[in-house]
Amino acid sequence: MGTSELCLAIAGYHPETFDADSDVYDYWMFEGLRASNNRELHVTSTHCDDPAARALAGGSRNALTLHGCTAAQAGAPSTEPQAVVVGGLNETFKAHLMNRFRAAGFYVLDGSDNPALAGVHPDNIANRTLLGAGAQLELTTELRAAMFEVNTRAGRRKSTTGVFWAFVWAARDAIQLLEQQQ
Fold first, then answer.
1. 115-147 pLDDT tens trace
2. Phi–psi pair at 108, nearest 5 degrees
3. 3-state SS of 75-133?
4. Residue 140: which CATH number?
5. Distance of CA 6 to CAs 72, 122, 153, 175, Å?
6. With helix as H, strand as E and coil as C, how does 7-70 read?
7. Which residues pair with 84 in a beta bridge?
């Protein structure tokens, strides 16, 4: 939950109004829209074979993917359950993301320390770019919950919090810094 709204905002679109920022990015989302049992629809990053997703990633220099995990899966300490794990094969992009998230006050874990969430497999959709490398974010349930006042499918898009926007701007800053260097 919450990754669709983040995807839209990081791409430059307000999740409630779909108004576009001056700098927008292409995006692709896989959403479970069932009333229940959406977990059955889960596709891992290495098994994402959607032709549109592959074409979009394959024609781009950079890709950033968003995923949800639990604090236990992330390896977050019990004192910091609101955490983000930054992975992927693009080490420069990872460093920019980690620096920006830390500067914004987020608890950041390096995916290199967590093989299950490292995002380093070449078949990972984040790494199917023109450069063969991208970045992957795994956000804990607690972090995503802190991003919305009303944490329902209908409520999230119009109840974003300061935590949500701080995360969005940190991610967008990292993307812009990466693109300035390329």
1. 999 999 999 999 999 999 999 999 999 999 999
2. -115, 135
3. CCCCCCCCEEEEECCCHHHHHHHHHHHHHCCCEEEEHHHCHHHCCCCCCCHHHCCCCCC
4. 3.40.630.100
5. 22, 24, 13, 14
6. HHHHHCECCCCCCECCCCCCCCCCCCCCCCCHHHHCCCHHHCCCHHHHHHHHCCCCCEEEEEEC
7. 108, 139
The total of structural domains in the chain comes to 1
- CA-based nearest residue to 60, from 16, 94, 26: 26
**Which residues 6+ apart lie within 8 Å of 145 measured at CB?**
1, 2, 151
Which residue has 């019990």 as its token pair?
Answer: 78
Report whether 139 contacts 107 (CB < 8 A).
Answer: no
Range of the domain at 134: 3-181
* pTM value > 0.85: yes
Q: From residue 72, give the alpha-carbon distance in Å to each of 68, 85, 97, 118, 140.
A: 12, 12, 22, 15, 9
DSSP run (H or E) holding 139:
strand 135-140
* Dist CA 123 CA 11 (whole Å): 23
CA 63 – CA 126 distance, rounded (Å): 5
* Structure confidence at residue 158 as a pLDDT band (50, 70, 90): very high
